[in-house]
Prior knowledge:
signal; mainly alpha; 47% helix; SCP domain-containing protein; two-stranded antiparallel ribbon; single chain
Amino acid sequence: MKVAIRAGLAAVVAAAALAVAVSPAGATTAKSGQAARVFCRLNARSAASDTVGDHATGARLAANPNTISAAAYNQARSILARAGSETAAKSHPIHGTRDVPVRYGTTLLACSRDEFRAKDRNVPVKRSGMSTYHYVAIHDAARTMGIDRW
């Protein structure tokens, strides 16, 4: 009896994992030769954590600041929007406060990076998976906010 229940549970778990891993054919919105749309929400829950990740424990990386000024965030946002980031263009400018958490900036950079990589999938000359123009815009925005890692 226990073996049958365990086998049944294992089959259900395996089927659920397969259903999650394999997307249906109609789930993608991209047509052939067209970049897939990247959707990224800019909120506190989707923001990247402040951990270093899977780097060696003894390695030291330049730390991001704890906060960034609202003016720096807004300037970086406009740099990315002018470069063609729909995520940056749709994000709301910061006002009414002097500083914002650094995760606002890192999330904006990461979402724009992913969007640019998706748009530049067919570009022949790339730097870090995107066109040179988008690469420079991302790094200019990061430098404006004082962010080293995103």
